[in-house]
Amino acid sequence: MANLTWKSMALKIDDNTGSLTTVTNWVNSASLEGAMETLEDTSLNDEEHSYLSGLAGATIPINGWVNTTTEGIFGPLVGNRTTATKTVEFYNGVKYYNGEVWVTEVSFSGDAGSLQTFSANCTFDGAVTRTSTSS
User: Fold this and answer.
1) Residues paired with residue 114 on neighbouring β-strands, in sequence order
2) Per DSSP, which regions of the chain are E strands?
3) Which one, out of 17, 88, 91, 116, has a CA that is 20 to 30 A from the CA of 28?
4) Which helix (H) or strand (E) holds 74?
């Protein structure tokens, strides 16, 4: 099997109407980062450290270019508290990862002579669903 490139990736997120919208064409960097806490339960009588599995979670940090679609999704989240999560779908070329996320750390930036960019972190709230088909 051939190795996959960035061209295999895709990203969808709820737009301002709640519809799952493809933003792949305006994203220049995205990654799916999973983590699990480990809890040390070493006792005084142990000879080696021992651990238990703790809470698990995942985040999708993204960067891209600002246009009416991306500004409509991320702009309302700048400086405003929200009580609603967004649905996200991340495709790595093999599997789809879906779930509800809290969008945090939204940033817009730009320099003279460059395109305006945005960045955000999408932190999963609860389980991440991994499937073979798009939602």
Assistant:
1) none
2) 10-14, 20-22, 27-30, 33-40, 51-65, 86-91, 96-109, 117-124, 129-131
3) 17
4) helix 68-74
Task: Residue 128: count other Cβ atoms within 10 Å of its Cβ.
Answer: 18
Q: Following CA atoms 13, 7, 95, 31 in sequence, which dihedral angle do they give, to the nearest 10 degrees?
A: -60
Mean pLDDT of the region 99-118: 94
What is the arithmetic mean of pLDDT over 89-117? 94
For residue 113 the two structure tokens come to 């002579």
> Do the beta carbons of residue 95 and residue 131 sit within 8 Å?
yes
Tens digits of residue pLDDT in 15-61? 988 899 999 999 999 999 999 899 999 999 889 999 999 888 999 99
Its pTM stands at: 0.86
Q: Would residue 15 count as lying in a domain?
A: yes
**Residue 17 domain boundaries:** 6-131
Greatest Cα pair distance in the chain:
64
